[in-house]
């Protein structure tokens, strides 16, 4: 089998490690980390890359190394080859290896600052906040929420979407296969500058490996057939599902 991998560069080390051991031929291309900051532009870029892969006429599937990422993958589609996408809200979930681990570590810390080897060496910032852009209503002003949902519900939604930033620690996700002690030490120095504690969490390469090796358990991956598009579900089970365009 031959796959086209379109992947965020924060997974470059992990993706290359998995490609080296994959039983399939995988042609990778990576997008800049900062592309996440403009989901609409990211979506346009990804759709163009999917169409380029289709025109090549040599791929059995296009693999997307992205989470929901602020709806950056919602609406993506193909006409001739399937798309395969992890069921994950963001790259944090993918680096941890499962949605269960994300909820365990970040369920009550939606504003936590975290990093990884890919975040340390790519782009202009060391850390990222956990991604809440997938939650409907994030782009609404408080007055809009108040009018639509009433005072009590509006206040609850607003506080959920805009949690107070956790200033007590920085989190580093350390994947054994790509671990770099120098990056951990560098982030520890950054934490010390602002009187924060550094917490190192064990990451897992399994979700990235399964994507690249073709082990697509339907509980962990969405396979989008030609003629369908990606639709957001915004829960912790499906995360994304199929939408057949009209």
Could you name the ranges where pLDDT drops below 50 across 5 or more consecutive residues? Answer: 132-139
C-alpha-based Rg, rounded: 18 Å
- The number of domains is 2
Q: Can you give the helix content as a percent range?
A: 25-40%
Order of helices and strands: EHEHEEHHEHEHHEHEHEEE
Report the average pLDDT across residues: 87
**Ends distance:** 31 Å
Main β sheet profile: 5 strands, mixed
- Percent of residues in β-strands: 15-25%
Report the structural category. alpha/beta
Sum up the overall morphology in one term.
globular
**Strand line-up of the largest beta sheet:** 2-1-3-4-9
What's the β-strand tally? Answer: 11
What's the tally of helices? 9
Characterize this entry briefly.
35% of the residues lie in helices and 21% in strands. By secondary structure, it is α/β, with parallel strands linked by helices.
Give an overview in words:
The protein has 246 residues and is an alpha/beta fold. It folds into two domains: 2-89 and 205-243; 94-202, no CATH class. 35% of the residues lie in helices and 21% in strands. The protein is built from nine helices and eleven strands. The protein has a five-stranded mixed sheet, sandwiched between helices. A four-stranded mixed sheet has the order 6-5-7-8. Mean pLDDT is 87; it is low at 132-139.
């Amino acid at each position: 089998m031959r796959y086209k991998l379109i992947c965020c560069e924060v997974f470059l080390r992990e993706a290359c490690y998995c490609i080296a051991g994959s039983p399939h031929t995988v042609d990778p291309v990576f997008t800049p980390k900062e592309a996440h900051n403009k989901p609409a532009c990211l979506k346009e870029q990804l759709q163009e890359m999917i169409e380029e892969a289709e025109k090549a006429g040599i791929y059995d599937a296009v693999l997307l190394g992205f989470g929901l990422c602020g709806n950056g993958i919602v609406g993506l589609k193909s006409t001739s080859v399937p798309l395969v996408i992890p069921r994950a809200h963001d790259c944090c979930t993918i680096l941890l290896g499962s949605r269960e681990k994300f909820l365990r570590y970040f369920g009550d810390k939606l504003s936590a600052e975290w990093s990884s080897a890919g975040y340390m060496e790519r782009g202009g910032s060391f850390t990222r906040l956990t991604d809440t852009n997938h939650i409907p209503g994030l782009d609404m002003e408080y007055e809009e929420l108040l009018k639509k949902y009433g005072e009590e519900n509006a206040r609850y939604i607003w506080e959920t979407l805009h949690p107070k930033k956790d200033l007590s620690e920085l989190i580093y996700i350390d994947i054994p296969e790509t671990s770099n002690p120098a990056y951990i030490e560098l982030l520890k120095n950054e934490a010390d500058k602002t009187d924060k504690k550094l917490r190192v969490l064990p990451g897992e390469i399994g979700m990235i490996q399964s994507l690249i090796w073709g082990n697509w358990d339907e509980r962990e991956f969405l396979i989008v057939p030609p003629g369908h598009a990606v639709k957001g579900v915004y829960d912790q089970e499906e995360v994304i599902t199929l939408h057949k365009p009209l």
